[in-house]
Amino acid sequence: MSTALVIGAGPAGLMAAETLSDAGHSVIVCDAKPSVGRKFLMAGKSGLNLTRDEPFAPFMTQYSAAETPLRPIVESFDAEAVQHWARGLDQDLFTGSTGRVFPKAMKASPLLRAWLARLDAAGVERRTRWRWLGWDQDAALFDTPNGREQVKADVTVLAMGGASWARLGSDGAWADAVGAEGCALSPFAPSNAAVSITWTDHMAPHFGNALKSVAWQAGGLSSRGEASITQYGLEGGGVYSLTPALRDGAPLFVDLVPDLSAEKLAADLVKKPAKLRLAHWLRNNLRLSPAKIAFFFEMTATARPSRDTWVTTLKKLAVPYDGLRPMDEAISTAGGVQFDTMNDRLMLKSRPGVFCAGEMIDWEAPTGGYLITACLATGRWAGRGAVDYLAAAA
Fold first, then answer.
1. pLDDT tens per residue across span 302-315
2. Which residues are CB-contacts of 142 (< 8 A; sequence separation ≥ 6)?
3. Helices (H), the chain
4. How far, in Å, CA of 75 to CA of 69, rounded?
5. What burial letters (b/e) apply to 135-150, b meaning 16+ CB within 10 Å?
């Protein structure tokens, strides 16, 4: 029996641990926090979106630049496999109208409890408050409640997350130690991040309200998701998926009535009295929500559109913004260990026997089940890679 060390106890790390344990190896899982799966639990507070029930080809396009290296990894543990795995933990699932798959419990805690119980029964050892500091020759070095500790393992899987939500464990502090091994790292950047906007006082009554049935566009990206108006700007799936373009400063636009064509709007407007006021048209004729109307006037406060531009402004409303919210507030991050610095089994080329998984690898995806699916899939792939490495060395 070989000893496997997994550093990081989120979905990717736990999946790697289970894969190694199932192959008959002794597994130690270390995590810097007092308890495991903290970010996983937080993600499930508003409904744990495990995966998305859609054909594989469009599913994979959500990984953008990382689609090619992730393709065999996700294909080996795809959306159907994720659902089968969750049901194996006695979790009843349901699929929403958009294809998003959730546990009926809508929370991560029942699934995590069942998963940890299964790992405990298999003999997987967990050590919490163990913060990884790097390597001391062949041993992994940790800062623990009992001082410095070393662990020598036959294989190691690193699954320490990205650099957002540091309070939950993903602080990116591992980057220096991994980079010191000659591994190429892409700088961390916010992904699935909120947009910063400086509002006037007129928007305060609408904080917490959502802009629904809208279409967003930035650069070459588009989204039909909703976004909530917050004290600091906009947040929600509608703008999260545009993060790659917004990071580069692409202009942001929104169509407040995407289900009505410009031609239909123009044809209806021409029939209205010449004295028609813009606010009346938005409220009484188009029946926009108070939040949408307030947002429209906020965005056009410096240059009120003339009647002949009402339609074009409504259909492509410019949304000036002050950049993205700080990276630590982002749901996830781009950046991390580059694929080129690993082999096709996710093993570091500069340190044989050490594998990477989850968000610490340089990939990103929008919310909607794609993030968790890839974390689980890369964890399993790295775990299988470690199993095969041990078999070859035996």
1. 989 999 999 999 99
2. 30, 130, 131, 132, 133, 148, 149, 150, 151
3. 11-22, 38-43, 56-61, 67-76, 79-87, 109-121, 175-179, 237-240, 243-247, 262-269, 278-280, 290-299, 310-315, 370-393
4. 11
5. beeeebbbeeeeeebe
